[in-house]
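Incident review: delayed structure delivery

Summary: a single-chain prediction request sat in the queue longer than the usual turnaround. Root cause was a stuck worker, restarted by the on-call engineer. No data loss occurred. The affected request and its eventual output are reproduced below so the record is complete for anyone auditing the incident later.

Affected input:
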Amino acid sequence: MIFIPARFGSLAALLLVAACASTPREPEPPVIVPGYEGVQDGEFFIEAVPERFLTADRRKEVVTYNGPDKPGTIVVDTHSRKLYYVQEDGTAMRYAIAVGREGLAFRGSGYIGRKAEWPGWTPTANMIRTQPDMYAKYSGGLPGGLENPLGARAMYLYRNGRDTYFRIHGTVDPASIGHATSAGCIRLFNQDAIDLYERVKPGAHVKVRSLEESIELEGPYMNDAWGRAVPDTPENRAQLEKDVVTKAEQDAREAEAAAASAAADGGTGAEASQG
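Output delivered after worker restart:
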């Protein structure tokens, strides 16, 4: 038996602990939500939707449908920011949507007059006239692709044989889903836009609910602290008060970090110019 002095044994134990502590930890892989994986779609690769954008109310789901609409109908609820595709068995596939200014302007119903994969996009004359700084550079149109605001799929709403300029489409901004946005029509996650596109037939009836219809079928909705539509309940009202404070603190931290980063970048630049 070999005797090891106690002081050397302690040293060996400390070295072993230090070695374990210095072993770099593998970063945890991102959580991939089924149905929202990255997908190769033709020549374009659509990134997976980050889990943080996929709270339970923003994932597509088969639900019991309580409305009066016939199977094959698309029902858009701009107030609760949901879209339903009504199915044969009394159910509907429900999707979360973002609603832009153009989407809020439409009332009543129409039908899907055209469908397109990776559609091109041209801003309307009114968009160019009212916001030239944002839209004038696209007056000649933007081809389909990963930078196109219509995303991977678009379904065009017609009425009486004419394009209404109301679109149901994908998005390049998954963080916007569930929110009201400054521009655009009705947008879905690209994965959801593809799913809906495969279900919908040309000529499918599209109905946009009024506020009264939405309240009757969904109940009243409100915005949470982050601008997402949530049911207007006492619990959510109480949570809103807490989240407003949390969000203000979060925004302040982010502003401080941004300011510190800008100052550091400025200092680096000054030192580099002197060198």
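Verification: The two ends are 64 Å apart (CA to CA).
Action items: add queue-age alerting; document worker restart procedure.
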